Sequence to fold (459 residues):
Amino acid sequence: MKFVPHAYQKYCINRMINENKLGLFLDMGLGKTVITLTAVNDLKYNRFLINKVLVIAPKKVAEATWSKEAKKWDHLKLLRINLVLGSRSKRIKALSIPGDIWVINRENVQWLVGYYRNAWPFDMVVIDELSSFKNHQAKRFKCLTWVRKYISRIVGLTGTPASNGYIDLWAEMYLLDEGQRLGKRITHYRERYFERGYDGFSYELKSGSEDSIQDKIKDICVSMKSEDYLELPDCVYNVVPVVLNTKARQAYDKLEKEMFLEVDESIVDAGSAAVLTNKLLQMCNGAVYGEDKKVIEVHDCKIEAFLELIEALHGQPVIVFYNFQHDLARLKKVLSKSNLEVRELKGPQDEADWNNRKIDILLAHPASTAYGLNLQDGGNHAIWFGLTWSLELYEQANRRLHRQGQKQKVFIHHLVVEDSRDEDVMTALENKADMQNALLESLKARIDKVKRENWRSAV
Fold:
């Protein structure tokens, strides 16, 4: 297939070619993979500026996305891509095969750094989903900083650079510029731009810090939202309120207040505030883990609301996102009584069958649908049976349907128990989204400005 880049894609390709460090904050569907591969192809075979490229990606993306994308386009078919996956012997063998790009999953970054030590061979590194390196204490981040001095070109790709707030940005930016913009140490970054939250553990932006951070990083970051460049159908977010029955409400309130609950001679002990939050979210869904991981069913209120919603969709295919394993088991059990084709998303065949309209209900954990899956051909409805605190997983999962190629309006339904932690999660996701959108807006590509400057210089 011939690649005819859009204007925004040309802009990104040129930025990647002309700059040795770049954060590309592109929404799903804008083609960040083909943009990157096109730039790599030009850098290596037209300009001779790079030798070996390493792509670090989530496991599912590493397995298929990059190699499939290269085979898809005529101008990229000469690129040799090796997958550094599987057992240690398979990874070592893949590293010895001649090529242009080596793709590895992020869990093996530590192994790769240890394998090469001071003989690091990759002069260009692409981090697919840069936000997965937001934790400055993670081994994958620390290992990459050890070899950063050997990397002459680095690109960070993500659509969610600040899923948990601006505190995430320090580690991501450090990998790009080695601390030039936001400081060499996370402690200095915190002291300069944040203050302690009321709980003594979290961090809140100081007044004016948001603009300062944005101004610091805007020269090496490009941000684009899909709605600005693609004509996607609308995405409608629908909250379906769930009311607990009297018995379930009493059990929920008791657990919340006393952090301890006895149900049918089974004990639920929350122990701490963090564990309590998790237990309360489980209870919202209708079951909790007791001692020895025993599943204790408390109510069917959300299950009943779910079945009513399925009935209201009148046979339209739907993806259902669950949170806990007992959610999956209970959903399977109740759906087994229907005449619907129900499938758990496990692999490529399930993806293909969904897109071929062979599945009525596709059960999926958001972590398994976050990256690299195209599910837009199979339907336009998603139901969140159990919510996630992670804005990144939430947005990425929704993007499986709301992406380029979707022809129908997309509906995202949320089953939310009233007066519960479900509502707190929804509020948190909305607040995080507001913060991240402000960041992305501030880092918009400035394409119009660049065009104006180029036009003026030409005149």
Summary: The longest helix spans residues 421-442. The mean pLDDT is 88. The chain is about 40% helix and 20% strand. Residues 24 and 210 are 19 Å apart (CA to CA).
